[in-house]
Amino acid sequence: MHLPILRILLLLLLTCSSGRAAVIRVPSDFPLIQTAIDSCASGDTLWLAPGTYFERLIVPDQSLTLCSDDFFTGDSSAINTTIIDAEWLGTLIQVYSQGEHVFRIESLTLQRGLGEAVPSHSNAGALQLYAMANLTLRHIVLRDNKSYTGSCVLYGDRLTQLVGRVVMEDIMLYVSRLSANQIPLHRQFWSFAQYFEINKFRHSPFDGPVVMFAVNADTVIINDVCIHDQRMYYGGLSFTSHNLGRVHEISVRNCNITDSSMLSIRASSSELNPFLEISGITIENCITTQDWDVRDQSPFLDVYSSGTVDAQRITVRNCTTNTSGIVRIIGEGWLRNLLVEDNVAGADPDGFVSNCEHDCFGRIVDTAHCSVEDAVVQNNVSNIYQFSAPNGNLRQSDGKFLALTLGGQDGPGEMMWRRIVIQNNLVNDFEDYTDLRLPRSANLGRALLLTMSPWSGNQPGVLQDVIIRNNRQPNSIPERHGNDAMLDGRMVGSTVELGAGTGGPCSLVLRNVLIEDNDDGGVAMQTVFSTLTAENVVSRNNGRLGLLFAGDTLVLKNVLVTGTDSWGAYYSYPYEWLFPTHQTALGLHLGHNTMTPRLADISNVTLYDNDTECVFWTVGMDMIGYQRLQIRNSILWDNDCDWFVSPCDDFSNFESPTFRYCLLDAPEPGVGNMSGVDPQFHPTWGAPWLSPNSPAIDAGDPSIVDQDVEDPNLLGQALWPSQGILRNDMGYTGGPGAFAIDTSWVALQRPKPRPKTLPRGFELGAPYPNPFNPSTRIPFTLDR
């Protein structure tokens, strides 16, 4: 049985049972719709025959249904042939239904409404809702409605009281044009409601000026909205909830906006703990041309929750803004499945010089308070333009030109950032830094800035399974700005910047992090962590700085730094007469600004082929509670440096660290070391992999706690990438944590593409993955 037949039977049943609900035909029962409405009882249905009705309607406080043949017969052609036309003489329909009463409009075309200003508010063109009014729209075509000072299609009056429930389903909008005057007041849909819901919205391409949606409600439910090929002024889509927000499947493509965000989704309340759920957001091929004097910090996608956020499946690609960033997501909870690629922040040189002495920024993705999982930020561009203000050059916020920022939450709890790729992003710096009187630039974390808030109940934040590669900054600024002028003034720029905040304990774990082929350094620190743990962290082929870790407790296991390339020994204003900037392969900073005990556990580190001022740069080694630094089971080989170990210059009681069971270029204090002995890295795979004959195999600390992991298939033998028996192997591939190393992305020589033809034969080389395991399984796939 078809739905229209069910509707007819239901209406007949209601009519028989209640004696009141009726189906009224227009024009057969009443010639005019308004006359029929005036004669209706609550619960009645007005059935309009095909045709055009030149009327403007006022709906009283009743439950009424206004519909076409499609509602009863399923003939969808009736939607376009049953038309209510206000002839641009005023608002098309004014709705007063409230409380339990709902006004329903189904399967009709509403056209040529005109909104005009009245003493207390501005009327909408098509649908004006009054205090606590309830409206349901289904299968509606909206055509050529406009307003001089308000909303073209729908307006819920915020100047008197919130409207009740607004539900829209299967809406088609055609060219609702606005007057060119007072553009900032114009909206297509403008509603302040208790409940607002959209299911399936489409529109025809047109050139505004228009703000498509401005919705503010306790509960907001949005599903299946497509906004394509539009030019919008002073904002695009804005959805704000105070209790519950669910926004799913929104597509914005090929749009141009002059100001504010393309899509703003907010859940904000000072009394409630709102929940915001987002998924299936796509923004592609869009442009913003914003004026810094009017708006700033308005990315394409702006998400904020003062409570909880659950955001997933978000894509923003090939978008361009002359000023601000691309994506901003703030709220406690999770962000999953994010793809941001091929975007440009700062496309217009004039867009940065209007009003940005302290707020210029080109962040691509900015997140705060939420954990992040499965995110890719790639092939994006941020531009820095030469800035001259009447009072001189100001470069105090340059460091905000970032690919991704991750911020901890403002309270106790676990933070997890995992499976993240940041690659092939570019910072074009057009500023001139030849004048050394310029203030130091905040050249920090050009690919990633991670900051945490200190709380006594915090669990450690975890940054895990992260790849940061090939991020370019051809004209790098030589200095990095920080809070400690004596310390940070000598630091170089970095690709990753880590900050712990101040005022309490704050711990961070870095696990399986690869940073390679970046212009401006590896990892640097803003502040000191209470505990910082680095497990399987690799810095390879980065300029000037490898890794700099700062914490009251430092734990480093399976760390590789190689190919760090020193540039000129830049001096940082105004301290250039004191110190050069420190360019180091591995920097260790133990509690420089605290008086708490410091501990360090550093094992299975490989520092190889670094051309820097120093291999080790150390701070805080003579402070209270510190036990002399000891490096264990490590390889430091073939590094070109001015100093092997360089302390911070303003500490006179520095004691050089000791080395225990390490392989070194030259003798250093310690036990079990080998000096001047080639570690014999693998001839094909290169460092850090050891050849089967390497003297570093089974040469580390013999203690049980340092043993390599046992191969479950060959008892007594080490599991790859460790080799030999269970005694610790020196360097990156040894120790109890080596089994977790992902050999596919640590390999210095990248694998060649698989052949697309059948092989003619096989040639077996050295057994892999474990040269000491006589049984080898070789998986392979043949193309058909």
Write a concise keyword list for the protein shown above.
39-stranded parallel β-sheet; 51 strands; mainly beta; 6 helices; eight-stranded parallel β-sheet
Question: What is the topological layout?
Answer:
Blueprint: H1 3-18, E1 23-26, H2 33-39, E2 45-48, E3 51-54, E4 57-59, E5 64-67, H3 69-73, H4 78-81, E6 82-85, E7 93-95, E8 103-111, E9 114-115, E10 127-129, E11 135-143, E12 146-147, E13 151-156, E14 163-174, E15 187-203, E16 206-207, E17 213-228, E18 230-232, E19 237-253, E20 256-257, E21 263-267, E22 275-284, E23 287-288, E24 301-317, E25 320-321, E26 327-341, E27 344-345, E28 365-378, E29 381-384, E30 404-407, E31 416-423, E32 426-429, E33 448-451, E34 461-469, H5 485-488, E35 496-499, E36 507-516, E37 523-525, E38 529-540, E39 547-562, E40 584-589, E41 599-608, E42 611-619, E43 630-632, E44 635-637, E45 640-647, E46 658-660, E47 663-664, E48 670-671, E49 674-675, E50 681-682, E51 686-690, H6 743-746
Parallel strand pairs: 1-2, 2-5, 3-6, 4-7, 5-8, 6-8, 7-10, 8-11, 9-12, 10-13, 11-14, 13-15, 14-15, 15-17, 16-18, 17-19, 18-20, 19-21, 19-22, 20-23, 21-24, 22-24, 23-25, 24-26, 25-27, 26-28, 27-29, 28-30, 28-31, 29-32, 30-33, 31-34, 33-35, 34-36, 35-37, 36-38, 38-39, 39-40, 39-41, 40-42, ...
Antiparallel strand pairs: 50-51
Distance between the termini: 51 Å
Q: Total strand count, please?
A: 51
- β-strand percent reads 35-45%
Low-confidence stretches: 13-19, 292-296, 351-360, 389-399, 436-442, 478-489, 569-579, 620-625, 747-759
Q: Rg from C-alpha positions?
A: 33 Å
Sheet bearing the most strands, described? 39 strands, parallel
How does the overall form come out from the CA principal axes? elongated
Give me the secondary-structure category: mainly beta
Give the proportion of residues in helices: under 10%
Number of contiguous helices: 6
Mean pLDDT across all amino acids: 79
